[in-house]
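Hi F.,

I've been meaning to write this up properly since the lab meeting, where we talked about keeping a consistent format for the predictions we share between groups. The idea is simple: the sequence comes first, exactly as it goes in, then the C-alpha cells exactly as they come out, then a line or two of notes. No screenshots and no reformatting. I'm using this chain as the first example so we have something concrete to point to.
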Amino acid sequence: MIVDWSPLRAELSRHRTEGLSLPIWWRDDDATAPTPALHRLLGMSAELDLPVHIAVIPNGATPELAEIAAATPLMVPVVHGWAHENLAPSGAKKAEFGHPHADAGAKTEAALARMRQLFGPDMLAMFVPPWNRIDATVTSGLAAQGYVALSTFTPRKCERCAGLAQINTHVDPIAWRSGGGLVSPEALIAKTVTLLQDRREGRADCTEPLGFLTHHLVHDEAIWDFSRGFLAELLDGGAKPSHF
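Output, unedited:
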C-alpha cells in the first residue's frame, strides 16, 4: 500500500519550526486474553518504542493476559467498562454506560477491583467506556472509586472532568460504519492534519496528547500497515510518547 504522507510531514515540520511540542499516545481496545493479534500489536509497540494502553474488558479478562502485562513494560492495561455489553435503550447508539442505570456504579467499582486484582501496579486506573459513551452521572462517581483518568474520543473540552484527567483519542483507522477495513489513508491523513492545525492555531487544547485508537482483534493487513506507518511518521516528525 502506497501512502502519501507529505501533508502530515509538512504539518509536523510546521510544528517543529514553530517550536511546538506534540505529545502522543496509543490506545487499543477490547482485550481479554492473549491472541496472535495481541502479540503482533505488542511487537509493533516494541519496534516503535511506544507504549500501548490496552483497554481490557474486566469481566472477561484472564490471568494469562495479566502475565503478559507483567512481562511487557510497554503494555499499560486500562479499564474498558465492565462486560462491554450494550445497555442502551432501543434505538439509541450503543453504550454500556451511556445512560443512567441503577447498577452502573457497582459495575465501575467492580471493574476497577477486578483490574487491580489481575494487574496490580501494572495497570492505570483510567476508565474507557465501551463505544466511547458515558453519562455524566456515571462520570461523577468515578474519582471517588479510585479512578484517575477518563478516555473517550474527539478533542477534550477540559483538561479535568469530575476530578479525572481527560485523555481522549482522536484518530481511528477503522471504517466501522461501512463494515470494517481501513478508512481511506488520504482521509485519515487529512483529518490528522486538521487536528494538528487546530492545536497549532489555538482552536483545540495543544497540551492534550494526540491519541491513536486501534482494535487489534479486527485488523486486516491494511490496518496493520497503516497503523505502523502512521505512528512511525508521528515519531519521526518529532512527536513524543506521553507517559501517564
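Notes:
Helices lie at 6-17, 36-48, 63-71, 104-119, 136-145, 185-200, 221-236.
The chain has seven helices and nine strands.

If this format works for you, I'll send the rest the same way.

G.
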